[in-house]
């Protein structure tokens, strides 16, 4: 483990995609080619498209339980079947190349072999034949990676959210948004429409060529490292936002939540694959990296009120900023 000023950094901190390069934050498209390594004050991240970490099995088990409990977290319009198979045959070779000790993928025409030792899975399947997979195709690929998955179809001069598996949403709902235009999905976000950010993002995505990969980061905060903060479960986690303010355990309970979002033009279907991987570390863990502690404290203190409200952090952001900057 790395150390900084006498503190030992866990692998989760060393690989954490700390998103702030300045002491203030505003929305932007902030896209860059992927994958590429980014150095940070704790180590670095970003050299792989699909990141597998020590939470792999537990997060996949949590996703499976959510899907069993709430089938609305997985949705696919009828015309998106080819895009799902395109996702499978795009991501499994990437996993096999990045983790050759525990995963392998071979393909001969439509016949494929997939081995994943981390899940004790060894299967043969035929592309386009769902009966050869252990579960329906979209759920299958979501059972192999920690990322949430959204698939955007391009037609009528726009992008449409027409399929996805979203179990770790940050206060939104796939069941509500599926079938919407890309611009409609981002309707509630403050400032981005006046500044044409979402319009420019859509234009950028529609120009992607088959196989091109880009990424961006987004962030918010979450109480108690809860991955599932979807709209559907708000009654379970919403009250924590107020309750945590006076809790002496606030530094351990409040987590900086960063999404690494990969954007890939699938080669066969032409759909846009949108991967959303959620990483979280607590304020206590952040405090082990002095540069991060100061920067996050300043970002929270300076963040405009409308942006804090949209991110759902307005109740506790002053308490968090005061703790970070007072240490």
UniProtKB/TrEMBL annotation:
Q: Matching InterPro entries, A to Z?
A: HODM_asu-like
- Any Pfam family hit: HODM_asu-like
Tell me which domain of life the UniProt entry assigns to the organism this sequence originates from.
Answer: Bacteria
What's the protein called, per UniProt?
A: DUF3445 domain-containing protein
Source species of the chain = Arthrobacter ramosus
Organism taxonomic ancestry: Bacteria, Bacillati, Actinomycetota, Actinomycetes, Micrococcales
């Amino acid at each position: 483990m790395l150390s900084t000023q006498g503190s030992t950094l866990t692998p989760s901190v060393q690989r954490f995609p700390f998103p702030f390069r300045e002491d203030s934050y505003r929305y932007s498209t902030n896209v860059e080619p992927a994958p590429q390594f980014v150095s940070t004050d704790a180590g670095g991240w970003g050299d792989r498209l699909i990141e597998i970490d020590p939470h792999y099995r537990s997060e996949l088990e949590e996703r499976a339980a959510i899907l069993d409990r709430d089938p609305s977290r997985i949705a696919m319009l009828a015309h998106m079947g080819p895009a799902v198979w395109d996702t499978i045959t795009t991501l499994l070779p990437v996993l096999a190349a990045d983790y050759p000790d525990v995963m392998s993928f071979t393909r001969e025409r439509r016949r494929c072999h997939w081995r994943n030792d981390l899940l004790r899975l060894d299967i043969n399947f035929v592309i386009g034949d769902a009966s050869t997979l252990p579960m329906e195709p979209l759920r299958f690929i979501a059972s192999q990676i920690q990322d949430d998955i959204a698939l955007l179809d391009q037609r009528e001069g726009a992008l449409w959210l027409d399929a996805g598996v979203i179990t770790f949403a940050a206060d939104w709902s796939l069941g509500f948004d599926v079938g919407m235009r890309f611009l409609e999905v981002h309707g509630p976000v403050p400032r981005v429409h006046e500044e044409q950010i979402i319009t420019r993002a859509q234009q950028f995505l529609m120009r992607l060529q088959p196989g091109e990969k880009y990424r961006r980061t987004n962030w918010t905060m979450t109480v108690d490292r809860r991955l599932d903060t979807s709209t559907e479960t708000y009654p379970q986690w919403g009250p924590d936002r107020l309750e945590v303010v006076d809790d002496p355990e606030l530094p351990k309970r409040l987590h900086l939540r960063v999404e690494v979002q990969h954007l890939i033009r699938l080669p066969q279907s032409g759909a846009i694959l949108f991967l959303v991987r959620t990483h979280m570390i607590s304020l206590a863990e952040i405090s082990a990296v002095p540069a991060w502690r100061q920067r996050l404290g300043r970002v929270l203190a300076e963040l405009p009120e409308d942006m804090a409200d949209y991110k759902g952090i307005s109740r506790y952001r002053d308490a968090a900023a005061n703790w970070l900057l007072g240490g």
